[in-house]
Specification:
This protein is mainly α and 174 residues long. The protein folds into 2 domains: 58 residues; 100 residues, no CATH class. The chain has a two-stranded parallel sheet with strand order 1-2.
Length: 174
């Protein structure tokens, strides 16, 4: 999570956050500046900061999962049951969580997956993601077989291309 952005959204600074949260300035400053990983802090510090920011502690401590692991797990869920997978994506707050932690690839990948599965199953798109559908990665990201083959756009799924993600197969989970 970008704590500096979170403080700016609240029109506050580190000193005010320190006073209001009860976290010593010397402890808080390196956390906000990204010099200390929030995951290494005491639960006491994490809970005070999360309370100040209006999140649960588990929402501000973020362990970045490898993209390939994330993708494989998602593909297994799709293979198990496409409709359940759509519901899980929409009902969970994972897209927001990834956006909040600036893990844009995973957020866009989830939205593209939900959109593709909705189209495939003749289900209307969820309007929860309307704003996100207008954003894309700056550089193309090639995944799966598309990364190996240099991928032709015609072989890729349109919903992923919208986000500048080259994905050709959601059913290749091992």
């Amino acid at each position: 999570m970008n704590f500096e952005k979170e403080l700016k959204k609240r029109n506050t600074n580190i000193r005010a956050c320190s006073i209001q949260s009860g976290i010593p300035y010397a402890t808080l400053y390196p956390i906000i500046k990204g010099k200390v990983d929030i995951g290494t802090c005491s639960y006491y510090t994490v809970s005070k900061l999360s309370r100040f920011l209006g999140y649960r502690p588990d929402e501000i401590v973020y362990e970045k999962e490898d993209f390939q692991t994330f993708r494989n797990n998602l593909h297994h869920r799709i293979k198990h049951n496409e409709l359940e997978c759509i519901l899980e994506i929409i009902e969970s707050d994972d897209v927001s969580l990834y956006l909040r932690h600036e893990d844009y690839l995973k957020a866009f990948y989830l939205v593209a997956t939900a959109d593709y599965l909705c189209r495939k199953n003749n289900i209307p798109l969820c309007d929860k993601y309307t704003d996100i559908r207008n954003i894309k990665l700056e550089k193309p990201y090639f995944v799966g077989d598309s990364a190996l083959s240099g991928c032709n756009k015609k072989e890729c799924i349109d919903e992923f291309l919208r986000f500048n993600i080259y994905e050709g197969d959601l059913y290749d989970a091992v």
